[in-house]
Amino acid sequence: MAIEENGSGTGLPASIEAAWGLRERRTKGPKPGLTLSRIVDAAVSLAATDGLGAVSMSRVAADLGVSTMSLYRYVAAKDELLLLMEDAAFGTPPPGPAPDEDWRTGFTDWAWALRAAYHRNPWVLRIPTSAPPSTPNSVAWMERGLACLRDTNLGEGAKISALMLVSGFVRNEARLSADLAAAALRTGDDTGQSMESWARLLRKVTDPERFPAVTAALAVGELDTPGGPDDEFVFGLARILDGLEALVRA
Amino acid sequence: MAIEENGSGTGLPASIEAAWGLRERRTKGPKPGLTLSRIVDAAVSLAATDGLGAVSMSRVAADLGVSTMSLYRYVAAKDELLLLMEDAAFGTPPPGPAPDEDWRTGFTDWAWALRAAYHRNPWVLRIPTSAPPSTPNSVAWMERGLACLRDTNLGEGAKISALMLVSGFVRNEARLSADLAAAALRTGDDTGQSMESWARLLRKVTDPERFPAVTAALAVGELDTPGGPDDEFVFGLARILDGLEALVRA
DNA sequence: GCACTACTGCGTAAGGTATACACAGTTCTA
DNA sequence: TAGAACTGTGTATACCTTACGCAGTAGTGC
Predict the structure, then answer these.
(1) Which CATH superfamily, name and number, covers A103-249?
(2) What is the DSSP string of B54-84?
(3) Is the pTM of this model over 0.90?
(4) pLDDT tens-place string over residues A122-150
(5) Is any atom of nucleic acid chain C found less than 7 Å from the CB of residue A29?
(6) Is the torsion defined by CA of B209, B213, B214, B220 positive or negative?
(7) Which of A35, B131, B207, B241 fits a disulfide with A183 by CB distance 3.0 to 4.6 angstroms?
């Protein structure tokens, strides 16, 4: 990602500044035939249909009917395009909490909304992360999350820590279930049975002597009947929010 | 990742079965000049010095003094090599909890040890994840984690959920601090100041009207003085374990 | 000892990737 | 109207993974 020193001094790449609405376009040369958002949209729909692996500069350009290199007039490197794709995938966050809403219900809604965004765009999870959030929608999501914690007695640092804790959890959980779904697709099972096939694998490979705890877990057979697909998420979120609540009450 | 149907029927790729010690080697042809572990070691030390991006099949082969294609006699695809690299990076987990140890202290130690493993091998965080853990050391780490929860009243499903919750948190936290360190390296700040430079960026870009909560957080200035590098980890782990403890006590 | 078989390592090549650079054409500004 | 600035594009480079076929080697069965 090329960070060039430009007038605005944000240290952001030019394309990201453009996404923020800074950086008015120069009026000199020929009118651009493309827009940053048209490029990003094309890349996003490509990722949605064929996966992130299908997103190459040439493929995106071909879908837009332009040459590969013309994309580089809008984006300095592929990294930047990926960053913008991520921003587009998240979109505008849902409205913040109602004025007198309990912080916990607001925060819970926020977490579920974030999870839904990942589920809508699972390819986002395959984008290699590079830096703290700096794109408009990412920061907007952050804003909404922080707003939920507004009326707690947490310090600002703690609020941000709590936010990172929950958003990290959501991302992780989404990644896990996406991996599970992908593995299921590879082995041909349907998604519900992929936990089961993992359990079957572990049973074949773990010896009870060396892996007593794993063996015990497998013995109960709870792994084979995974229950609803939301269970893992519900469990983890409840634990984290319980832990936060203990802190807020203190 | 090519999954071929072989005798053992684990559904695992041949190289991973070899890592488990299944699959005795055939004695027919010429003696192999390489070993799986020599290949993995070379790849790991390459990643350690030059980053995961430097790990290409040709580069690894060159470091071993063999041709690129000979690696494919030991590994069916690069994915498999990456999986084995990850397994090697984690290594054998520390011993499990003492017999009468409190679950919480044992679990805490486990989380810190996992974090240390990530910090020793930050390139692991750049490996795209693909499936639930199925390599020897990964499962061994899982075993040790589950062992900590042995004497709690949690169901086996809940134990696994708790394990995934904590291990996901650790991974996420490690990824975050690695990203921060990488960003700092890009901008030339030292690592301690990278939070500060992120705050500076946000200040430039967020307008108080649209982003009141973010602005408030920035105003306090707590972001600029990040405290110790462990703070975020300590905070998150404490919250999660508090949440788990509430469940265990109930 | 000899054929057979299975295996190893390697050279070549195909098809993909990102992107540096030069160049022609276009549009606004002085 | 000249010049500057900007756009799109073609070409070229330097990578990448990996499919395939071939030559050589080490055991096995006769």
Answers:
(1) Tetracycline Repressor, domain 2 (1.10.357.10)
(2) G--HHHHHHHHTS-GGGGGGT-SSHHHHHHH
(3) yes
(4) 999 999 998 899 999 999 999 999 999 99
(5) yes
(6) positive
(7) B131
